Every structure is written in structure tokens, then in C-alpha cells.
Amino acid sequence: MVLLVAAMLAAPGGVGNAVAAPVACAKQDAQTGVCLVEATSPGQAADAAPVVDGVSSGGVQETGGEASPHNPCTYTVAQPQPAPTSHLWQGRSPADGAMYVQVCPRVDGSGLTTMLVFVPNGSAPPAGPPVDPRVLAEQAIASLVMRAPEIRMAPPPGSTSGLVGLPVWMWTERGEQFLGPTRQSVSAGGVTVAAVGQVSHVTWDMGDGTTVVCGAGTPYAPGVQGESPDCGHVYAQTSSRHVAGGGPWPITATSTWTVTWSGGGLSGTETLELSSSSELFVGELHVLNQDRSS
Length: 294
Prior knowledge:
Layout: E1 2-5, E2 35-38, E3 51-52, E4 55-56, E5 61-62, E6 74-77, E7 97-105, E8 112-120, H1 133-143, E9 151-154, E10 162-163, E11 167-172, H2 176-179, E12 182-188, E13 191-205, E14 211-214, E15 232-234, E16 249-263, E17 266-280, E18 282-283
Parallel strand pairs: 5-8, 10-18
Antiparallel strand pairs: 1-2, 3-4, 6-7, 7-8, 9-11, 11-15, 12-13, 13-14, 13-16, 16-17
């Protein structure tokens, strides 16, 4: 009798657990890549049904029909299927049904056991535990590529060319990772959840007590006069007189991402904020008046 064991997973606890080292494999199926492990329980005849984790497996199992409401296993069609001449069919053939990969938690709670089961034509594998769309949504959101705003300004951030009364233009770098929309989907147990993230607005803390709320802003074009049409600020005070040590105004840009997800009959919205910081020296323009009357 043959058990098909792919790998042992780390102790259960949820999605994201690390995968432990694969089970040592003495013989591997050339087509499926699954490890073939012959096992018999101590004191048991070699032709008796093997016992793994206290469950009689009977080698490549035959299954189908209604599942127990307490069945914790999941089933997916084996890809690829064993060759028609493979001994894994044990006298059956692909015309009789299909091989499924069965994944079940070990009874001692130490991980998972993976094996191959045969499902006859006209039958379905037992239904596994229901998939919670909210868990898939968390995975999809965690997979989204979202970055804090890449600050762009005129005068350039970090420069000393800022002046009281001089318009400052602010904008952020374009691209899906900075503004969205960025998309990701996750599937499990026949349920697919899709998530979409997009920046709804960017909030600028200019350091002088002023807050400016914008979209992506308009990039400054050299030679353009006046204020930004949609995202700008004019400093009324120098930074040296109000920042300790005569330093620059600290500037923080915070993008607010709105993430919507749907799937499995549910939907939801999540909000998160990502921030970047910069600075700008703001001075005064001094004009020297000279008396030419004499």
C-alpha cells in the first residue's frame, strides 16, 4: 500500500506559517513530484491498510459523496494526473475517475498530512471546511504594493531657495505603487477575493501649522509664474526664526489609501495611511535701498 506524502507543514496557526523542511523522500513519482512513502503500522500485516496519524488510509484512497460536517480536509484536483500506466491507479484508470490531493491536519496538531485520493466519476470529494472571505481579503490586502508618497516640490525639498511670499508647489510621484489603483486577488476553496487600493487624497503638513489637502498635485514646469493650481502653499514666516537651531520647516506628506475588497458574497473597505518627510529652508528677500539724492 502506498501513501503519497508531499510535505509536513509547521504547527498550525493560520495562513503565513513557515513551511518546515520536506519529509525525507526515498522515492518520488516522476510525473506528480509527490513523495511515495510505503507505511504499515507496527505489528500489522504488510497487506493491511496503512495507518497514518491514527487514520486508516488504505494507500491511495477512494472517496466521494457527502462529507462529514466535521471533515477538516481540503481537496484539489492533482495537476498533473498520474500517467495512465502509473501504479498509483491501483487497477483503475483515468476513465474511472480522477486523483485529488487531500490535505488534512494531523491529529496531534503538529502540522498537515498530504496524500492522493481517488474520486470515481459521478462523485465529488468531500467538502472541506468553509473558506472565510475575510481571511482571503486580509491576504489580498497584504499583497498589494502600496508605497508612501514620493515628495516633489518647487523649490526642491531640502534646498535653501524658499522665500517668504514665494509660492511653493507640491506634488507626488505618479505610478500605481504611489497612487494606485493597485490590484490583487487570492483564491482558496473555490472562493476568490479581489482587492483594489487607491489613494483618495494626500495631506501635507507644512511645518508652520498649516495643513494642505490635495490630490496628486501638478508638477511644476520651469518658468511658470504664480501659485500651483491645485496643491500649493505660501509661507508667511521664515523657518530660521521659528525652528529650533534655525533649521528648515519640516514637511510631511501622508497619502490615504482606500482599499475595497469583494468576494465570497462579502465586501468591505479598509483605510490606511503612509507618510514621507522632507524639509525646506524658507528665508526672506532683503532689498537694499540707496539714497541717490546727494
